[in-house]
Amino acid sequence: MWNLKSVTHKMRLKNSMILGALMLFMQCAEKTATDYTIEASFASKAPVIDGKADEPIWQQAKPIALKENRSGKEVLEPGLQTHVKACYDDSTLYFLFVCNDPDIWAAFTQRDEYLWEEEVVEVFIDVDDVPETYVEIEVSPSNVLFDSYIVDPENIDVPATARFNLPRLKTGVTVQGTLNQREDLDSSWTVEMAIPFEDLATATTENVGPETEIKLNFYRLDKNQGEEPTSYAWSPTGKSFHKPSVFGKLVFK
Fold first, then answer.
1. Which of 51, 79, 124, 148 could form a disulfide with 173, with the two C-beta atoms 3.0–4.6 Å apart?
2. What predicted TM-score, i.e. pTM, was given to this entire model?
3. Where are the transmembrane segments (predicted)?
4. Tens digits of per-residue pLDDT, 64-83?
């Protein structure tokens, strides 16, 4: 014979367990989406933007690794790994990408060509409280630049947004191998970026600097001969890179 009080108690206990598990899952999911931070070290002397990464500040800065974007798994093959470092001074934000790559190539030669169709590194930077608006910067192995300002990640007007230019942005690239010689084995390519804080200012965040809460994500597209194209991300998005809800944060040391 059923005991109503016992059944009710068991149902309440079961519901509480389900609710607790759900809350724990949501907390974990939230942490997964926001627990990405990269530390920017202060540079007493600005690095030379030549793609060489031989300044002391780059030896001090802590690296972060990009993961497989679709699966979120770590990249275990050393020859394909990507690491990013950050530093800053009073006026400028600096990033360093080191991309291990056995086949380094780039056909585009003009600024704002569609670099994502080839090999490229990317950084998205958001300095205000509007998630849908952020700066996108892409650099190819031949140091060709694509820069834009996104206002609607779901419906990007590429020709319109590509007309945006960061006026003082500087980039430098070195290739450890032979660019566009597809039959040999390359090693890596290195990218340096210098982004003045004033270039990142928006209508709602007019003064950008180390006191600004900056959200961002890093990406890489790798397309090696004879292999399937691969995408990497610091905070994986699963598919399209344009997912501001999973942007990480920049911490100024």
1. 51
2. 0.86
3. none
4. 999 999 999 999 999 999 99
